[in-house]
Amino acid sequence: MKLIKRWILHSLAQNIINIFPKKLSYKVYFFIQKKFGRVSDINAINYLKRSLLVFYYITKYSLPFENMIELGTGRTITTLTGLWILGIKNMKTIDLNPYLSEELTKKSICQIIINSDKIFELFKDSINRKEFNEKISELSKLKDLSLETILEKLSIQYFPNQDARELKFINNNSVNFYYSDQVLEHIPYQILEHILNESKRILSERGVSIHFIGLHDHFATIDHSISRINFLKYNNFMWNIIAGNRFMYHNRLRAPDYLNLFKKKGFQIIEEEKCIDNRSLLLLQNEFKLNSSFKKYNIEDLATTSLTLICKKASIHNTR
Q1: Which residue, among 265, 298, 262, 261, has the nearest Cα to 280 in the 3D structure?
Q2: Mean pLDDT of the region 170-179
């Protein structure tokens, strides 16, 4: 008998947990992820590489080292911790879901402390050894304290259960950089429109938005038997049954959709980087059964599995 694929079992579990009351569903999902998933396998260095990349754009565009907002906190603040080490202050992080874990945050901090020599080699072009050691010493004092104290000491304000379409606590033109990582793909198009409107309102005139967007089927990260474009086989109705829950929703927008949306909302794209997956490209050129709703895209756009966008507010028009 043919075994059920791992990603299908994962989908089934998510949809069952999604039926639970919201608060309970978060606790059950976190328990399942810890027990059977990879959520506890934190690789702090990978997150810190992202910190360094964000810092690169901050310095490249001569942005002030303060007043940043992160969309989508997730389970840990490792990337923000890296930015704090590099000197960034007054960081806000918002999430629609209260995912941030004290346990995983402390585990991440311990990893940074243990691997400090290796991390300095990564950071050495951006911070001197004396300043780096001082930051590691400060982290060592925080690893056994409460999450609230850790956030305060790292100059991070955390806003869970926060709708990014309406950030009343943030003033107009006050944010120097607006950042997200593997978040926008989990938001429906119509909501994304309002989020971009709000991000444009709070972004300063010289401010920059930095977005890393995952265009791949996220089930492929847990089940390598399927391709990174597997979800392009399904129509909207079927995909909603498979992954229309709060834990795995993916809008399946392709790179041109994001480019057009940002321009429509009054952003100027100053840099973009696409990654085309060769296996996906080969499948599309051969036997892959593409759903008809995606046949309007060229195969390079269909095989693009990640997109980085660096944007600023367009100076000529306002589309809000």
Answers
A1: 298
A2: 97
